[in-house]
Write a structure and sequence with these properties.
By secondary structure, the protein is of the alpha+beta class. The chain is built from seven helices and five strands, in the order αββαβββααααα. α5 runs parallel beside α7. Keywords: 2Fe-2S, Iron, Iron-sulfur, Metal-binding, Oxidoreductase.
Amino acid sequence: MAEANTAVSEQNVPFAGAGTAETVQLMVTVNGVDRIFDAEPRTTLAEALRGTLGLTGTKIACDRGSCCACTVLRDGLPVCSCMMLAIEANGHSITTIEGLAAPTALHPVQTAFIEHDALQCGFCTPGLVMSCAALLEHNANPDQEAILDAISGHFCRCGTYPHVMTATLAAAAKMRGDDNG
């Protein structure tokens, strides 16, 4: 186990010696902007996004990877940011809920979640939106099984799953340009 951690550190930390004795310096592209910051090796990506970078849209609920509320995209793929160390994001591109939308308009998945009541308390919503958006980037015409697979790790206490399904199908249609209304 120690060898794996050493390999990860050596591979992902190009700024050897930077930071303090207790931190490492990381360079991560977050929402299209290169960010350089110091973090303790034990800091999770979720903690760094929220505490260090001030991106509080990423929610920490279970803090052990069992609810997926903290889902962000690492190089376009969904990951639970509470289960990923910030050091593992070094040199990668991270997209959070704050970076999903265009400057002047919400992402189609965000709009569809609103239009189809796919949220209630909203705590799990950012993670669900990120997973559904990632699905639609890789599958323009998903069926219900593909959507269920994409959201299978998400835990929504309010039970909005049927609305999430409807919203994702609507967003897919809009993104394909075949929505009629």
